[in-house]
Amino acid sequence: MGKFIFGRLHGGMSVQTIGTIFLILLLIHLFRTWWPLRRIPGPFWAKFTNLQRVAWVKSGHAHLIFQKMHNKYGAVVRMGPNMVSVSDPKAIPTIYPMRAGVPKGDFYTALRAYSRKGGALKLVFNTQDEETTPIFASSITKYEPMVDDVLAQLQKQLNARFVKTGATCDLGDWIQYFAFDVMGTMTFSKRYGFLDDGKDENGMIEKIFDHMKTAAPMTQVPWLDKYLYKNWIVDAFRRTPGLAILKFVNQVIAERQKSVSEGKPAKGAIYPEKDLLARYLEIQTQSPEIPSWAATAWVFTNVIAGSDSVGAIIRTTMFNLLMHRRTLEKLLKELLEAQVSQPYPTWEEVRELPYLDACVQEGARMHPPFALPLERRVPAGGMDILGHYLPEGTAVGGNPYVMNRHEATFGQDAEIWRPERWLDHDGVRKKKLEQSTLTFGAGRRICLGRHLGMLEIKKCIPFLVMNFDLTTQQLQIVDPHVFTVENAWFFKQTGFYARLHHRGTDSSV
Length: 509
Ligand code: HEM
What we know:
Mean pLDDT: 85
CATH class: Mainly Alpha
Number of strands: 14
Distance between the termini: 85 Å
Helix content: 40-55%
Largest sheet: 4 strands, mixed
Bound molecules: protoporphyrin IX containing FE
Radius of gyration: 25 Å
Strand order of the largest sheet: 3-4-11-8
Structural class: alpha+beta
Low-confidence stretches: 471-475
Strand content: 5-15%
């Protein structure tokens, strides 16, 4: 302090000079931040900072804000200093090509669960390595008996708890329990037990959403993530919610590896030779070049990405069917005319039913389970997007919620539920709509579990529609206004209540 004279550092520069240098450096920094994407329209602060995007994600309504920005600024919008969002499906093949060379952006690094020992765990969906993709079984029908087992449990519980008692059912929660228990059964031959208990006993579903809620804002500023969350100092004081799931997954794998090495049947596993874990371990044994973390990554991906997503599409489709009874009746008519098996329709019977397919496509379009831009990094040489040049290194992506509502593609009524938009006689228009929908991603990194997901969805919806009376006012939404959604990259939907009545064909009641 003694060497400091007001306005001047002893023998050095004045405070004013330091201030001026700081200001010049700041202006240079702002100029360099603004310059590369200066021609792309967008909100003012997005030219200089990502903090605005963080706030949008934290609000839980980023999908609506992205939509508003596109309505205001057009199909190609600068949402951050180095981030461009695109709303026109015409750009899908350029941003998400089948060939390698347009890798996932840093967005995905923030979605990794962290442990002190293993660092940030790469999962199948969040690795940026374009070669690391697992081989899912090509035939999905071998998983059908597993879905039927879980449907049987769902039926038993809905009948006992709601049909017999007349109590109000949180149908949204029960659909979620179904989706999780199916994925548990397909992945490691065990139900988590949500359906048996009628609740999320260990808070697993909550923990997954907490993990997403913590990670989602960080996807917008991934460089900050390692300082705020993914380092051992922070970990010593504050565990990230992803860790609890990681622990669970590692425990399941360790149990299975032990039973395999001891030559004993896996404890409590119903289909230990047929499940996905058995397949992952088999692939790993056959291919030593596959890294040791792969089995964990595969199982964790299923737990995280394969359950919530299926639940969201079933919930959205059921919700809209109940809200628009004309479409519900049309679907029921189709199922009755096709004489699908009861109580559990078979995949063979339902997979090609046009109206069921139209309803599921519409549900998946309207409420894609992942609803922030699926970011890619522009490769060397840059990229031309709808007449805008994006330099190398730009993060570019489409938000499925916004792209799926592109009016020029899906129609002026893209905001509303209209399964009929998917029906056409020669299939050309339907194909175009499918290729314009970003619900499952697209190109090289398209969802690998989409066919398995469809198996679950297309079996569960007819099961609910056929077994519970939906044609009269007997299964009623208690209050559509309490159905709410929160977006943390994953959508959380709550408040889908219903009353269930027996349709008369189920002899087990
Ligand atoms: C039916 C509902 C589902 C939807 C809407 C959905 C959607 C998605 C999306 C949007 C992605 C990421 C694409 C990207 O980041 O660009 C993805 C990736 C993935 N999904 Fe799904 N998914 C669903 C079901 C499933 C199921 C049931 C499984 C597992 C059996 C699964 C496994 C995967 C895997 C492994 C990836 C990573 C693919 C890669 O990065 O190469 N998904 N999914």
